[in-house]
Every structure is written in structure tokens, then in C-alpha cells.
Specification:
Metal Transport, Frataxin, Chain A; three-stranded antiparallel sheet; alpha+beta
Length: 61
Amino acid sequence: MKRRDLLRHLEASGCVLLREGARHSVYVNRAARKAATVPRHREINDFLVRRICKDLEVPTP
């Protein structure tokens, strides 16, 4: 999955960018009080996409 598509999905699900790291971006779901890191790769593996969505308690795209 493309990184920008994942970020659009996360933001549409209520997640916001908490901070930018050197190699990752940290997104947080304030309603569920959960956080997850999103790597800065153009393509993100589908298994990792599912894990990020599970960690943030949002539905998978």
C-alpha cells in the first residue's frame, strides 16, 4: 500500500500526526489513547498496514 493512501485512511479515521521522527512519523488515535509509528517508505507492506491499524484501533483499508 502506498504511504500517502495509508495516511489518508488514518486521518479519515480520526488519527492525527503527533510528531515526525528521523525515519518514522508517529500517529495517535486520541479517542482510543493509542499511538503507532508509520515508516517513511513509499510502499508499506500489507502486514504492517494491518498491524498499524490494529495498534491504532481503526478499521483496515
